Amino acid sequence: MILKRLLARFDPEPPQRRLYRRIVEQSRQPAFYADLGVPDTVNGRFDMITLHAFLVMNRLRRERTQAAAEFSQALFDEMFLDMDHNLREMGVPDTGIARRIRRMSEAFYGRVAAYRQALDENDEAALKDAFRRNIFEGEADPVALEALATYVHATEDRLAAQPYRELAEGRVDFPPPPALPEA
Fold first, then answer.
1. Theoretical Cys-Cys bridge with 60: which of 29, 72, 152, 170, CB 3.0 to 4.6 Å?
2. In the chain, where are the structural domains located?
3. Whole-angstrom distance between the N-terminal and C-terminal Cα of the chain?
4. H helix or E strand, kind and range, residue 50
5. CA distance 56 to 72
6. How far apart are the C-alpha atoms of 157 and 167, rounded to whole Å?
7. What pTM value is reported for the model?
């Protein structure tokens, strides 16, 4: 145990960064964009990262421990540190970074509130409406909405079955992305 803590100090990739990297990898799966029709834009990618981060953070919230709450906050901080870095890489001037990050965090919290309320109340119509408004920018194929809702429920189930210890180590097991049925 002591050796593990000592080595953790020298870990170039802390667990929240590993977990965030996995969230981004899952969010970038081509099926979301090619099959479901999520816009392959900066906003579309932000929305998919937000959805996956929400699902993981919602799982961490259900732990109801201080350690899980702190880890969830570290994950959030990692996410917005990456957003800041990406904005800088895209050439956004330093003077505009804080304003954009604030708008992104407000968008994140708004989406989280809508997703959490719909899931907590088991309100499929509200969940799909939140997807339509946020992820699909107002227009969505009902089949794609259903596929995404089914994926979210499968992800929740898979995360619920995953031990907290694995998440705290930066490991997460997402289900495969949804695919639309063949016509």
1. 72
2. 14-168
3. 54
4. helix 42-61
5. 8
6. 14
7. 0.91
